[in-house]
Amino acid sequence: MQTENVPSILSVRNLSIWYGDKQVLRDLSFEVKQGQVTAFIGPTNSGKSTLVRCINRLNDFTPNFRSTGDILFRGVAMGTASDATALRKQIGMVFRKPIPFRGSIYENVAYGAQISGVNASTHLDTIVEKNLRKTGLWSEVENILGETPEQLSIGQQQLLCIARALAVEPEILIFDEPCGELDPIETVKIETLVRELTKDYTLIFATNKRRQAARVSDVAGFLYCGELIEFGATEKIFTNPQDNRTEQYVTGRLG
Amino acid sequence: MNVMTTCALRKQKLVSQIITFIFIGIVGAPISGVLQKTYAADTEAASAATPLNTLSPLLDDLYTVLSISFVAILFGIACAFYLQEWLPQTNWVRRFIESVVAILGGVPSIFYGILAIGIFFTDAGTLKTVGIVRGPQDIGDGSALGPLSFQYDTPVFYIVVLTFILMVTPMTIKTTQAALRSVATPIREATYALGASHWQVLRRQVIPIALTRILATGCRAMSSALATVALIFGIYIWQYTNGPREMSNRFILFLSGALFLSIFSSVLIKLCASASADPTHPTR
Ligand SMILES: Nc1ncnc2c1ncn2[C@@H]1O[C@H](COP(=O)(O)OP(=O)(O)OP(=O)(O)O)[C@@H](O)[C@H]1O
Ligand SMILES: [Mg+2]
Predict the structure, then answer these.
(1) In chain A, which residues have their Cβ closer than 8 Å to the Cβ of B279?
(2) Were both Cys, which of A94, A213, B268, B278 would link to A39 (CB 3.0–4.6 Å)?
(3) How far is CA B248 from the centre of its chain?
């Protein structure tokens, strides 16, 4: 995949994060290119979740959270002044544990569209169908749209959450260890889906499974103890890493 | 398959709880009615001179107490929402109110009852005319007593209201806050992550999830308000046996109201305990 000529959609500049006195991210800078999968790998507690949560400003709700540096979305700094809800509509997020909402499968997906202001029921019907099709869940839930998501498997619930996030029509979709709770077959489904979604979306993917990052991403960053040790094309990170620690990590000797 | 069974079980449980509740209502209401009638007959025999207009002022008083406590409960719920959902944990106003609430909420409600008795009754054995007045037949010596009811525009009435607020509001704030806290952070974050505003998160997630517990809270608070008033009447009856008999009716009415509400709130709490066995994340 061409990395040089693609326009960047998100720029992170000298980002540092503290929770209270504890510094969790140290001076990160990188660019996320449009239409690519950017993965962040690193051992537990290296700060992957903290980083991706900053990108849609979910950390606004965390007490004692403090940051310096800038994150620019389409060239505009997403500082505290701008509207965080508008930003989150453009930058969606899928979590480790699938979190279906109260109500039916239909209502779950429709809620995403309702958030972005769609209310006419005919529109909702098409949006629900379109996004469930995108995730490949449509054929499985077509006949049980009115029922609650609790009867779905965890993997199906995760796909439902992805469909819900897509219904908001974001530009960037963040995945924070989306397969952390899934079995291998469901994991393959999600990974395939992630590759398909690159046609329409920019994806950011945090994981602590190195092989998974190698499979799904175009660009990868290695986080270690809050530092971005190396950032670049996935192929290069995995086959020809520049830093000693990256090499040790991708070969399984570190973390 | 497994999940389906637990779902069906939960439904069964819910239905049986509702049936129990209705049963208690059906059985409980006539019992209290019979008790009331007995007292009414008793009273009629005792003082044929005083036409007993029992029910209307009786219900008036019930409505008064219910509406005062209703306002106090609404106020408490509003406070709890503001503290829990708008003020950060470190805010000094929140800390201050929470510690006051912790202290007041720990005071047993009988204390407030006794406080109110001090306000209601004089040592001569007659009611203070400012708080509760007798009807037109009142001649002040207790020989011919008309119906009693609260009088609304006196300072003592406001003191009574204040007592209620002191008693009911802290209780409500404490339990409503607990109900709001029970709405887990991940589900809030997942809603925010879609781009929902604070209000949308409250409407879509927090209020529906916490509603049953908040309702139960309100019922419980109202129940203890009624029980406290019943206590006041009870002590009155016990102390002044020559006093107006319809006090007994009040006592019964308020006490059965309190019992009814407290059972109702327990049922609600049970209901939401089985509902919040996390419907979206069945344990596996
Ligand atoms: N709300 C918080 N308050 C204080 N410290 C936090 C908070 N959230 C995370 N941390 C700390 O920040 C560091 C980074 O955590 P983070 O969750 O970002 O790591 P991670 O790379 O996502 O780990 P994992 O692979 O386990 O998900 C950890 O040391 C963690 O203890
Ligand atoms: Mg994490």
Answers:
(1) 102, 148, 150
(2) A213
(3) 20
